[in-house]
Write a structure and sequence with these properties.
With 324 residues, the protein is α/β, with parallel strands linked by helices. It has helices spanning 21-35, 47-59, 73-80, 93-106, 118-123, 127-135, 152-166, 188-195, 220-230, 239-253, 259-273, 312-323, and strands at 6-11, 39-43, 62-68, 85-89, 110-112, 143-147, 177-183, 234-237, 282-287. The two termini are 26 Å apart. 52% of the residues are buried. The structure holds pyridoxal-5'-phosphate.
Length: 324
């Protein structure tokens, strides 16, 4: 449909809690246990909260997760079900993150996976590169498109490709263009890329892609650097394009992605149209979260095709109508 000869979807919608965050949390909390931390915690835009609460339940740790108060209801429900403490903060993710950094310095026994354990947490995203190379038959793709919130995942995918070459599991040196995807309503890294800036100017987020609504991204400059050094691109897409991206993926591949996935697909489409992704490249599009968690984004534009009485006459009439 997009006109790319070889396009693969790395589908992380089917992980235990429905997003790539299970990768980073399993590394961080394994390390937290080893280091003797007692409480699992995080600042989250939703998916991380789901995963920390679930992994903590399994590991027998107490959990405290902190989220912005405007989070999608499925993300709140899919966190609280695991029995930990869910604290909504009257503010955006950047406010939540700032508060968590303060709490982390007050509570030495708390493992904030993406604050004081961030170095371990981020390494978990390297598996997104390892698996892609393995699944391609131990070769690298030419181009990957990755959603950007804090920027951590993007930088570690690039690191993962380089490590595979270093340890000799892939013979050819990686030459993977790494491109970033952001929603226009929260696109501080894309904006820096477009303007040629060296630094990220924080932005107040306003987007339906709440998982990517990080206005002051911790790894933004590193993501910018990776995209520039690998010859990648950035795309920023409107909320309408995000919804169209979710529908396109669902209707062509049968994969229901959350809004971050809509951002990635819409960005890829844009990059192809702008000839920034070439049609003869092997491309991997990272779909990092499940659409069942962000149904609010589609609700206003989704309805049943028709409502009829339970009889064959009405159905026959409907069918005729639909087919004419
Ligand atoms: C589904 C999903 N995709 C992508 C991201 C962005 O990841 P990062 O913050 O590592 O850039 C997030 C962040 O929460 C997310 O939930």
């Amino acid at each position: 449909v997009l006109g790319i000869g070889e396009l693969y979807i790395k589908n992380d919608t089917l992980n235990p809690t429905g997003s790539f965050k299970d990768r980073v949390v399993s590394v961080a909390l394994s390390k937290a246990k080893e280091l003797g931390f007692k409480v699992a915690a995080c600042a989250s835009t939703g998916n991380l909260a789901n995963s920390v609460a679930a992994h903590a339940a399994w590991a027998g740790m107490e959990s405290y997760v902190f989220v912005p108060s405007n989070l999608e209801s499925a993300k709140v429900i899919a966190t609280s079900v695991y029995g930990g403490t869910v604290v909504a903060i009257d503010g955006n993710y950047d406010d939540v993150n700032r508060l968590c950094a303060e709490i982390a310095s007050e509570e030495p026994e708390w493992a904030f996976v993406n604050v004081n354990l961030r170095t371990y947490y981020s390494e978990g995203s390297k598996t997104l590169a390892y698996e892609v190379a393995e699944q391609l038959g131990w070769r690298f793709p030419d181009h990957v498109v990755v959603p950007v919130g804090s920027g951590s995942q993007l930088t570690k995918i690039n690191k993962g490709f380089n490590e595979l070459y270093k340890v000799g599991l892939v013979n050819d040196q990686p030459n993977v263009k790494v491109s970033g995807a952001q929603p226009t309503g929260c696109s501080p890294v894309a904006s820096a890329f477009f303007s040629g800036a060296e630094f990220i100017k924080p932005q107040k987020p306003s987007t339906i892609a709440k998982s990517l609504a990080i206005g002051n991204p911790a790894d933004g400059v590193y993501a910018l650097d990776v995209v520039r050094k690998t010859g990648g691109e950035f795309g920023s897409v409107s909320d309408e394009e995000v919804i169209a991206g979710i529908r396109l993926l669902a209707q062509t591949e049968g994969i229901f992605a959350e809004t971050a996935g809509g951002v990635t697909v819409a960005t890829l489409k844009k990059l192809v149209e702008e000839q920034k992704v070439s049609k003869d490249e092997t491309v991997v599009c990272y779909i990092t979260g499940n659409g069942q968690k962000t149904v609010e984004a589609l609700a206003p534009s989704s309805e049943v095709t028709a409502t009829i009485k339970p009889n064959l006459e009405q159905f026959s009439a409907l069918l005729q109508d639909l087919r004419s």
